[in-house]
Amino acid sequence: MQTDTIPRQTPHPTAEEVFSRRFRSALRYDMNIYWELSKPHFGRFVAAVIAGALLSASNGLIAWAAKPVVDLFLIGKDMSMQYLLPLGILVLFTLRGGFTFATNYLMSSIGAKMVKMLRDDIYRKLLRMPSSYMISASSGSLISKLLNDLSVLHNTMAYTIRDFFVEGGTAIVLIVVAVVRRWDMALLAFVVLPLIVLSIGKLGKLMKKTSMATRKMISRVTIILHETLQGMKIIKAFTMERTMAERNRDALQEHYRNTMREVRIDEMSRFLADVLGGLGLAATAYYAFSLIAQDRMTPGDFVSFLVAIMLVYTPLKRMSKVYNNFQQSRPVIERIREILQVQDEPSGGIEKSIQGEIVLSDVSFTYPSAREAALRHINLTIRPGEIVAVVGHSGAGKSTLVDIIGGFWHPTDGTIAIDGTDMRDLSVFCLRSHLGLVTQEVVLFDDTIKANIRYGRPEATDDEVIAAATAAFAHDFIMELPEGYDTMIGERGARLSGGQKQRLTIARAILRNPSILILDEATSSLDTESERMVQAALENLMIGRTTIVIAHRLSTVQKANRIVVMSQGSIVQQGTHEELLAQDGLYRELHAMQFADEEKRDTSTEAQS
Length: 609
Hints:
This protein has two domains: 12-340, Up-down Bundle (ABC transporter transmembrane region fold), CATH 1.20.1560; 354-434 and 550-609, Rossmann fold (3-Layer(aba) Sandwich), CATH 3.40.50.300. Helices cover 64% and strands 9% of the residues. The protein is built from 20 helices and ten strands. The protein has a six-stranded mixed sheet, with helices on both faces. Helix 10 (241-293) packs antiparallel against helix 11 (299-340). The two termini are 55 Å apart.
């Protein structure tokens, strides 16, 4: 595929490779994910860890310095401390601020780079996914995973892992200070630590479950917003504003309730850490006062120890948040892994020049979620340069047939050969590079007119773009626009009329110069004047190409070399327009019904005028 030919800018393992590795322990798997994703930024990571270690050491130095300050200055009245103490405080807090800035900046930059790489890799993965996945998956849910979920991973790297090193290191340094000052009091103070760890572990499991529900709920909110923006005209036309507002409000309320559950779990972890820490500190203070009363401890030792203990409970409480944040990121990792584990669209390896012969041999197809087959035992040969029209009632299988030929789906049974090569053995990129597609649903991008036409062949020159637009009868209206070919057309071509948009898609197909052309109801939604212009452009496009035309207006297919009539997934008739009209079959039925409808419309128009 074309996406595979685009080189990645960095040589590190892809997200797909990282998320495919297996570990017995879920924790080891999570940590491996973060390690592998941060490996390309190893230098920054080491620098951040060193800055974090120095920050932890500076916090420990505050507790250690409490003893000489109390014993020498407050009790011993050593006035030299009057000058040294303020200077020491200034230097210490300056260093502490510098280490904090360095740690936070470096870890945030690693998180931002990691998320940028993930978004790029996941976007590339989306381009390689088969049509079956893209149809079954909600586009709003995918957008939520790319934006909301990956932001959680950024926060985990930027803040949670940073806190893991900084707060964990600070706790260790302060515990060492406390033990050196009075090991017996330290033992008494930290006897509650196992209870804190146990409570954090139990609440963390609940946090993981709640966080997974929150991720799904924010996906629902994103889906509603995406559908609203896409379908605003229908919402207004059917006065659905109140219904959509209520639907959005319910989704937001559900997300709010679950978010507050996460907040309660998080705050409960801190509350328990505070209560248990206070219990340990109260027992320690009682014991320390008895030692001071017996002159077995100096006030400096007590203050230094007390500062260390009070400071150590702060990083321990933050470590409880670290654990909860890790639990919140686990559902995100699982959701991203779901995307990356989807099998790529199958592609053979044969590259060849395609002339346009298409042979379908006993082809049947059933959609993954359907019970009934959409196509049944299709046998059809299309010669190079032949124009074949496919007609039938809605749901007959016409669009499914052209999707199969375009390689967007593969037959459940039977084979399709392109110029004698089984389509499964043919490179998908090779097939589609020789394929032009114009559909009823116009797909344009929020870019310039020139860029939209050039999607047909990115390397095309400006003169070739203008020539394609001229052949599509689009050049004149383009030149009337304020900036000509450099005019921005808005999302999905919102600033253009239906006929103008369709002629741009035809210009894009002309520029591609395909061997095989598929026209899927390309004029069905246009008015008479626009249809006339588009039909003329299509006739230019079809010259010398194998063309498959799906049309509901039979007047547009009468010039086809052959007309294929479909019903309930099968081919029931084939022949020219004249041959099929001479037969007693579905085509004559369709023709009679359409002729009667057109006659009624003409009579109604005359009566109104």
